[in-house]
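pls read this stuff:
=====
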Amino acid sequence: LGVVEKIGELEHKVARASQRELLKRDLFLIDDTKTAITLTLWGNEAENFKQHGHPIIAVKGVRISDFGGGVSLSTVGDGQIHVDPDIPEAHKLRGWFEKQDALEIGQNLSTFSGDSSSSSNLYKNLVPVALADPNRKTEAVGDNAEYFNVSGSVMYISRENCMYPACPSPDCNKKIADLNTGLYRCEKCNKDFPSFKWRLLLSVHTAEKLLNCDVDRLVNLREQDVDSYDAVFDNVLLKSFIFRLRAKQEIYNVSTKIKFHF
């Protein structure tokens, strides 16, 4: 749910694969957290969007993309868009928007300039959690990991690259290389194999529990039923969970940072 702060012009694009002409229009949305995001309309929806001013937009079933490092939305398939829905949340958002400073909101949107990838500037890393001693410095963590619980909602899961082909050995999870000879090479084991196993980038236990779907079924859905594959991820979005996290100081390129792990 968001307010349309800016409506982009109707653009004509040519699909690389089919060379077919496509119609596209970007809507720049903002919500009461002052988070901005691009919603891209395609085809008839782009051409027929005749709204003016700052309508409230509610979307469902749209595709979430992280191309170029930024997060954006786009209409595909059965995605639904509702303009000025008569629901309490929309009325509350309208009231919030009308009280805002137009200049301040414009500054939030200025990073877009028509390029959805720049929206990554609006997404911040998780701030290091306050430890038992609020005055304790990050450097004091040393090699000791801190464990804590976080209540949160899943806002986004990258589904395009969430799995990788791994070595089939029980004690090895190294990514294998396709030799294009019917064999797959694991450099760690220094062996060639006739097959491989799929692994999720999250630990298998965590990912399968979160998605409520095992990796073998997920692979089959991706190859045979894309809509059902997307639904597995969509069903997790905006749901709340209690996460057990580990915070540990790590050194990368001479820079010391706190990293968070499940």
